[in-house]
Amino acid sequence: MRALQGHFMKQEDKTLPLVEHFYSFQGEGKFVGTPSIFIRLGGCNLGCKGFNVHIDGITGCDSLKAVHEERFGSSWKKIDDLVPIINSHLKNLDFKPDIVITGGEPLLHYQNPILLKMLDYFVKRGFRITFETNATIKIDFENYTIYKNVVFAMSVKLKNSGEPKSKRVIHEAIKAITENTKLSFFKFVLSKDDLFTKEIGEIISCFKDTPIYCMPMGSTSYELSQNDKAVAEFCIANGYNFVDRMHIRLWSNEEGR
Ligand code: SF4
Question: pTM of the prediction?
């Protein structure tokens, strides 16, 4: 694999921070409802306080345990091989589920040889692999060509994240993904208060051929119900795809779901 051949292994590349792994179904976006193995990696380059989730006195998003290394990093496992971890789920299945790499921001680790080895192994075996990303990290697709064979669910952050636009909307990073992959898409989590801005239109204006999926904000079924109809109407009016967040509808924010 070209990506591995040219890569000089740094000390921090000898392990990969794994927050959790589990088998469930995809609750969001284009492949909603698909049986999927989830790999959650630690670390994020943003710190979205606007989503107002509170754990142990820290404010952030619903993936806070994968974001806040100082507080939660001691529970992250430093792994040196991802293949057997995914195979431990596959051994009970006689079909190919999707593999979803999420975070935090998993593309922080996109050059890590442990991640590249896993991609090479499962892409060759015909698995569909999706990275759930905030699309702020520009991938070098020429030197890391394996990424042309995966899907990116680009959850570009909006003003409601609380992060400045200069950090959360990186056009070159989005452009690299849309130009080098076939099935990638945008997904936005929206509350009814977010629907009056022109933010989404501005972000996608240069990427009109990339599908857009909008979902209601909320970490419980009740909270989703406060936003779902307004977001659905917004999608109908703008020609975007509406999807629910099925894992939250069924299990709220329960871990391992
Ligand atoms: S980019 Fe995603 S994972 Fe990172 S802090 Fe924001 S919402 Fe959380």
Answer: 0.92
